[in-house]
Write a structure and sequence with these properties.
This protein is an alpha+beta fold. The protein has two domains: 71 residues, Winged helix-like DNA-binding domain superfamily/Winged helix DNA-binding domain (Arc Repressor Mutant, subunit A); 168 residues, GAF domain (Beta-Lactamase, 2-Layer Sandwich), CATH 3.30.450. The protein has ten helices and eight strands. A six-stranded antiparallel beta sheet has the order 5-4-3-8-7-6, with helices on both faces. Strands 1-2 form a two-stranded antiparallel ribbon. It is elongated. The N and C termini lie far apart (57 Å).
C-alpha cells in the first residue's frame, strides 16, 4: 500500500507561509537557533528543511551576519541580528518602563547604570544612563558583552540551568561559579576587573510577571569606587532599582 503525506503536514510548512519560500525557510532556521547553538543536522530536523538546502541557507545567513558558526557547537544567532534586536529593544516597553529607575540609580550612586537583556550567548545593553563624573564607565546601548565575565553575566547564569559551558570560559572558573551560585540567595552579584581591568560593577535580577528573568540592572564605575569592598555601598540602590522596574512591569 502506498502512503502519501499531506503537504500541510510537512514540518517546514508548519512555519509561517508568506509565499516567499526562501525567506520563510531562512526565518524558520533563525527560529531554530534562537534558543542556542544547533548543529546542521539539528537545524534540518527541527525545521524539516532538507539538509542540503539548510546548509545553503545557513551559509548565506552566516555571510550576512544573521547566524554564526561556533566551532564544535554549531550555529547560533549572529552579531548583525543581535544589533538589530538591540535596536528594536530600545523602543520596547521594557526600556521605557525601566528608564526612570535607571536615572534614579545613576543619580543615587553617582555611577553609570545599565539595563541588560540576554540574546543567545551574549548579554546586550538595551539602556544606559552615564555618570556625570569625569572618570566614569561607558557601555553603549546595543553593546554585546560576554556571559563569562562581569556581575551582570553572573546574574544571567544564575537563572540558566545550562550555565557550565559559560562558567568554564571565565578567567577564574571556580570563583566565578561560586559567585553565580550565591546570586539567588543574595539577590545581587558583584565583580571587579573581570571583564575590563579597573572596572567594578554590581548587578541585580529583574524578574518579570511570569517569574522568569526579564532583565538585569547594573551600576558600574572605576574599581577605586566600585571594587569588591567599596562597591557594596551600591548594593541597596541596585536592588531597589530592580524592584522598581519589576513593579513597573507589573511583576
Amino acid at each position: 500500500m502506498c502512503h502519501h503525506m499531506d503537504m500541510r503536514d510537512r514540518p517546514e510548512d508548519r512555519a509561517m507561509d508568506t509565499g516567499v519560500g526562501t525567506l520563510d525557510r531562512a526565518l524558520a532556521i533563525v527560529d531554530a537557533v534562537e534558543a542556542g547553538s544547533r548543529t546542521l543536522a539539528a537545524v534540518a530536523t527541527d525545521t524539516g528543511i532538507p539538509r542540503s538546502t539548510a546548509h545553503r541557507l545557513l551559509r548565506a545567513l552566516a555571510a550576512h551576519g544573521i547566524v554564526s558558526l561556533e566551532p564544535g557547537a554549531g550555529y547560533r544567532l549572529g552579531p548583525r541580528l543581535l544589533r538589530l534586536a538591540a535596536s528594536a529593544r530600545r523602543e520596547a516597553p521594557l526600556r521605557d518602563l525601566a528608564h526612570p529607575a535607571l536615572e534614579r540609580l545613576a543619580r543615587e550612586t553617582g555611577e553609570s547604570a545599565q539595563l541588560y537583556v540576554r540574546a543567545g550567548e551574549v548579554r546586550v545593553c538595551v539602556d544606559a544612563v552615564e555618570s556625570e563624573r569625569e572618570l566614569r564607565t561607558i557601555v553603549p546601548v546595543g553593546a554585546s558583552l560576554p556571559l563569562s565575565a562581569g556581575s551582570a553575566a553572573k546574574v544571567f547564569l544564575a537563572f540558566d540551568p545550562d550555565r557550565i559551558r559559560q562558567i568554564r570560559r571565565a578567567a577564574d572558573p571556580e570563583r566565578f561559579a561560586r559567585d553565580v551560585e550565591l546570586v539567588r540567595s543574595r539577590g545581587f552579584a558583584m565583580s571587579s576587573g573581570e571583564r575590563e581591568a579597573g572596572v567594578g560593577s554590581v548587578s541585580a535580577p529583574v524578574v518579570g510577571p511570569d517569574d522568569a528573568l526579564a532583565a538585569v540592572v547594573s551600576v558600574s564605575g572605576p574599581a577605586g569606587r566600585m571594587g569588591r569592598a567599596s562597591g557594596r555601598r551600591a548594593v541597596p540602590a541596585v536592588r531597589r532599582a530592580a524592584r522598581e522596574i519589576e513593579a513597573a512591569l507589573g511583576a
